[in-house]
Amino acid sequence: MLFHVEMTVNLPHDLDGAIADALKAKEKAMCQDLQRSGKWVNIWRIVGKYANVSLFNVESPAELHEILTNLPLFPFMQIEVKALCRHYSSIKEGEI
Ligand SMILES: O=C(O)CC1=CCC(=O)O1
């Protein structure tokens, strides 16, 4: 199942810089592991915002929920999820 996910990060202004850097490093490692697994298809920065748009390809909404809630930055993110399916005008064979 494909999901469009928009994540907006709101780190507290008084969060210790070293803690913020550690959270971002863990987030990056998890994101890249999930990309290698094929579950996190890609991630794009939204220009001018501390936010991203990502495409996930997972088995179920429950699996996506598990992934998102385990992200190190999850406590500091506003997340919006949209389920996607094939459009009849797409010239691609598969879902992606
Ligand atoms: O910087 C962001 O948009 C938050 C984020 C999600 C995965 C990642 O590596 O960074």
From TrEMBL:
Pathway, per record: Aromatic compound metabolism; beta-ketoadipate pathway; 5-oxo-4,5-dihydro-2-furylacetate from catechol: step 3/3
Quaternary assembly: Homodecamer.
Enzyme class: isomerase
Name of the protein in its database record: Muconolactone Delta-isomerase
Keyword NAD part of the UniProt annotation: no
Keyword list, A-Z: Aromatic hydrocarbons catabolism, Isomerase
Pfam families named among the record's database cross-references: MIase (PF02426)
Phosphoprotein in keyword set: no
Family: Belongs to the muconolactone Delta-isomerase family.
Stored InterPro entries: Dimeric_a/b-barrel, MLI_dom, Muconolactone_d_Isoase
The protein's Enzyme Commission number: 5.3.3.4
Muconolactone isomerase domain mapped to chain residues: 1-89
Record field: catalytic activity: (S)-muconolactone = (4,5-dihydro-5-oxofuran-2-yl)-acetate
Gene Ontology terms: biological process: beta-ketoadipate pathway
